[in-house]
Design brief:
The protein is an alpha+beta fold and 160 residues long. It contains seven helices and four strands; from the N terminus they run ααααβααβββα. It has a four-stranded antiparallel beta sheet with strand order 1-2-3-4, with helices on one face. A hairpin with a 7-residue loop joins β3 and β4. The chain is elongated, with a radius of gyration of 20 Å.
Length: 160
């Protein structure tokens, strides 16, 4: 059965391309917090011109400053949206460590994030513990939180 026979033909779409882009911006901003039109363009694949127009067309609530986290340690999987959703990784990966997280060739490694910044990469092979490769020496209190997060990953995988 053809779609038009099943649902009926509605003629032209009720939503214009501009309206769709504005709605996509709204959803992107809600999910990605502080960002720029160029980040949205890189994430969505829209041209920068279309992205900027949609960015400025919508009425959005003011973006709140991100809350200060204290020692929040997270193991993000490879290609996590936190690292993929922006044109650059300048706000999430300290200068000088970009190639450790994004070595090139489209790869994006599993990353340890502390207070929103990458500080290490991690990997795991079946039946083995989570292996962490820090960019620099980690403070003792951070290592304690990291160990808890590593154990949580294994618990999630049912291998505790």
């Amino acid at each position: 059965m053809l779609l038009d026979e099943w649902l009926g033909s509605t003629g032209t779409p009720a939503v214009t391309a501009e309206d769709a882009a504005v709605e996509l911006v709204r959803r992107y901003r809600a999910a990605h917090g502080p960002a720029a039109p160029e980040d949205f363009a890189a994430w969505s694949g829209l041209s920068v011109t279309v992205a900027r127009r949609a960015w400025s067309s919508g009425s959005y609530e003011a973006e709140a400053e991100p809350a200060e986290a204290v020692g929040d340690v997270r193991l993000l999987p490879a290609y996590d949206n936190y690292l993929v959703g922006y044109r650059t990784r300048a706000l999430s990966v300290p200068p000088g460590f970009e190639r450790l997280v994004h070595p090139g060739g489209g790869q994006l490694r599993a990353t340890v994030i502390v207070d929103g910044l990458a500080c290490a990469t991690w990997s795991r092979r079946a039946g083995r513990p989570v292996s962490v490769t820090p960019f620099e020496e980690l403070p003792a209190q951070m290592r304690t939180s990291l160990a808890a997060e590593q154990a949580d990953v294994l618990r999630f995988l049912g291998e505790r």
